[in-house]
Records
---
Amino acid sequence: MVTSPFILPDWPAPPSVHSLCTTRHGGVSTSPYTSFNLGQHVGDDPATVEANRQRLIALASLPEPPRWLTQVHANKVIASQNWSTGTHADGLFSCTDHHVCSILTADCLPILLCNTQGTEVCALHAGWRSLAQNIIAKACQHFKTDMTQLMAWLGPAIGPQHFEVGPDVYQAFCDHSDIAHLAFKQQDKQHYLADLYQLARQHLTQLGITAIYGGSYCTYQHDTQFFSYRRQGVTGRMASLIWLA
C-alpha cells in the first residue's frame, strides 16, 4: 500500500493559499528517521535530509525552496522578506507570492494562518513554550487584516492523552489566563495532561479568530504516520508549509 507523504489542511482557504503538512512517509532516511525526515538538526545524514528536501520540492510542486528557520521555542515571528538561511525564529509571515513559509515539528503544534482575502499567510512552530509566550499574538501583529477575517489550521501535534507535563507548564499558562486550566487534566500533585490544541484555540479566540480547523491528530499515538520526539527521542521532523501563488 502506498501511503501519502502529505496531509492537506481541511479548511476553506482561498484559492491563492496553498498549504500542506508532511508525514513520515515518502523519503529516503533510514531508522530511526524513517523515512521523510526534513530536519537537519536531529542527527540524520545531511545529504539524506537534503535529498528529502529536494523530494519535497518536487512532490509538492513548490514554487521555491522552503524558507527553513532555526527554531528556538520562543515567540519571534519574522516576515519572509527578512528571512535568511539560519534565521532564528519560530514563525514566518508572508504577503509575497511564492515565499514558502515552513516550520518543523515532531510533537509541537504547527499552526497555519491566512486571511480570507488570500493575501497574507503565516506558519508557526507552537510548542508549549511558544504558546505561553503568546506567539500567536506576535504573529497577528504582522497581518494588516482584521483578526475576524483570519482563519487557522492546527496541524499534527501530541494529543491531550499523551502530553504529560509538570506544574511549571501549568503555571506558565494559568498565571496569565482565567480559562487555561480547562486545557489541563491533573494526574497527581506533580503531573498534568496538557491539551495543546485547546490552549491554541483559547489564544486564537481571545484574539478574535474563530474560524479554527484541524486539531484531530496525535503524533504520539499515530506512530506509523508521524514522528514523535516524546515517543522516540531520536527521530525525524515533519514540515508544515504555507505559501501564496
Note: The chain is about 20% helix and 25% strand.
---
Amino acid sequence: MGDMVGEAASLNALGALHHDRGEHEQALRRCADALGVVERTVERSGLADVLFTLAKVHASRSERDEAIRLYRQACDIYHEQENWPNEAKARLLFTDVLVSVGDTDAAVRELERVIMLRELMGGAGVGEVRELLEGLR
C-alpha cells in the first residue's frame, strides 16, 4: 500500500503543478489518475489532498458547483482527521468560491471555522481572516 500512497501523492503533486501553471486539462487528468490510485487504499489524508487539488482546478475553471462539492469533501476529511493546517487552508479557499456564488452566509461560517482553527494552531494569521470576515458582514 505504501507504493500506492506514494504514487497517488506524486500524481496529485503533478496535478497541482499543472494547476499552478494554468494547465487545467492536464491537472484534471493527473488528479483523476491520483484519485483512481488513492481510492484503492484506505488513505483518507491522500484522498483529501486529491479532492482539494481537484476543487482548486474546478474553481479556476469557474466550475463552481463541482468545486464546492469537492471542497466540502476535502474539508470533511481534514476535519475528521484533525488535520487543522490543511482544513484551514481548504476552508479559506472554499470561502472564495462560496462568495462567488453569492452564498455569503456559508462563507461567513467557513471563515469563523478558519479563525477557530488558526487560534488552535497558535493564532498566526487570525487578524487577516478576521478582516476578511468583517468585509463579508
Note: The first helix runs from residue 2 to 20.
---
Amino acid sequence: MQEESKFQAHQDIIANIGEKLGLPLTFDDNNQCLLLLDSDIFTSIEAKDDIWLLNGMIIPLSPVCGDSIWRQIMVINGELAANNEGTLAYIDAAETLLLIHAITDLTNTYHIISQLESFVNQQEALKNILQEYAKV
C-alpha cells in the first residue's frame, strides 16, 4: 500500500506540473513520463522512490566512433559534474549517449519546472555540440 501511495504522490506532482505547462502529463506503468519536444528532443522522467530521474537522449553513438568523441564527452562530463548539471552516460545496448540528472526536491512545483527547463536546454545544447559525431 505504501508503494501505491508513493506512486500516487508522483502522479499528483506530474499532473500538477502538466497543468501548469498546459500538457497532460502522467507516469505510465513503468513509472516513466516520456516527452518529445520540438520533434527531436526526447526526454523521460522516471519516478524512483523519493526522486525523479531525468534521462535525455543526446545522440546515437557507435562504440567504435573514435577517441576524440570520448575525450570530448569526458571533458563535458567534468564540466557537468562541477556545475551539478547531470552526467553523460553511454547505454551500450542502445548505442546511445544520454544526459542523466536527478531531481531530489519534489516539494516545489515551480522549482521542478525550472529544473526540467534547464535539463532540456542542456540536452539540446549537448545534442548540437555532439551531433557531428552521431551514428548515421
Note: Strands lie at 32-37, 41-48, 51-60, 87-91, 96-103.
---
Amino acid sequence: MHEAVAATPSEIGDAVAYLRQSAERSWANWHASSSKPKDPFRPDSQNMCGFTASFVSLALPDIVGGKWQVAGGWPQNGGGVISPSGETRAHFWSVSKCGLVVDITGDQFGLPSVIVTTRADNRYRASFCSEFLKMHLPKVIPVAVKWLEELSLTTDRKPTVH
C-alpha cells in the first residue's frame, strides 16, 4: 500500500460515489434490523458515520491507493463538521495521509451526500484523540469489515484505478 493516493480527484469522486451506493444498501439493512426506529424524515445515513468512515477507510486503499484512516470530532472540544446552517455536529469521516477528506454521510446534516475535499476545508475539524479512536473503532470495524465483504461479493465491484 502506497502513502500517496494514485487517483485523480475525479476518480476518487467516482470511487466514493460507488462506495456510497454500496453503503446505502448496508444502511437500509442496519436500520431494518435495529431496535431503534429510524427517523423517517432523516436520510439513511443518520447515525452511520462511524461505521461508514471505517468502511470507506478500509475500501479506498484498494480502489484509489494511499493510506486512509478515520477522523472526526466533537463540538465540545472544538471539532466536528459544520452544517450549512452553521451548526457544528459530532461526526466521523475518512482522511488520507496526504490530506484528502472523504465524507459520504454528511447529508444527515444537510451537506452533499458525497464530499471529496482537503483538510483545509473549514467544515471539517478533527478533534478525536487517538485514545478515543482506539476505544471506538473496535466497536465499528467489525460492521465495516462485513460491509466490505458484502461489497466484494457483488458482481458489480468497481475495478481499481491505481
Note: The chain has one domain: 9-153.
